[in-house]
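Many introductory courses stop at the sequence. We go one step further.
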Amino acid sequence: MTSVSFAGPGDEPIVLDVTTPAAQVRVPTTRRYLMCPPAYFTVEYAINPWMDPTQPISTSLAVEQWTALKETYERLGHRVETIEPQPGLPDMVFSANSGTVIDGQVLGSRFRAPQRAAEADHFRRWFLANGYRDVVMPERTNEAEGDFTWTGRYLLAGTGFRTDPLAHSEAQEALGVPVISLQLTDPRYYHLDVALFVLADDLIAYYPDAFSPGSRRVLRRLFPNAILATAEDAACLGLNAVSDGRHVILPVEATALADQVAQHGFEPVFVDISELRKSGGGPKCCTMELRD
């Protein structure tokens, strides 16, 4: 066993004890992300169990945490595009919910909650203004990368709380990729991206108790070597993480998950998303990947 030190969000060292086989060499790939500054972030309604409008919110702290996340991506060599935030849309910071992009084709979103409905058209206009022509707006409720996770081979598609199951076939037609439907059962993990994330083409991490028994069997069949998160790591939104194939950006509280990630040859990179988590979001929620 080897002690490995990683930088935390304030550059303080976080030490994990890991055993990493020498053969496991993970190679990062440069990514392009779309993010939205949380200039109007607040919690003024409750559309998931994490949101409590009676609790104090610091918009300035949310901006600070979001900026640190953006700068982390840029420090790792990734390109970050931004979209202009809009007043009256406090959850627009969670850009992952507004589009799924694979091979330059875009499937937009249709939100279940009326409070977020207007976000979809702002992102549609951004795509068109930035050279995307294959933009399909869905007929069925579809909260984009909140419930659609691209593995490089399959589009894992969540349902149960937000995305209409009929949106899964709509995504297959629009994006031309095979879709695997997964049933979410715990309202705390209302989107797939708070219950599962992709580390590399051959590996995912997920919280089994967030899924139906049949979906757990599907995941075991597809990913027999998957990392299984603890209840504690799921509860801090540790699975709302972003991987570039080597670096894994995840909440600073998710130490057990980080330990497992490191054992598989990845490098955990910690960020503080405590303020953004008050709305039920984390690193991935703030990050739409533009796969051109």
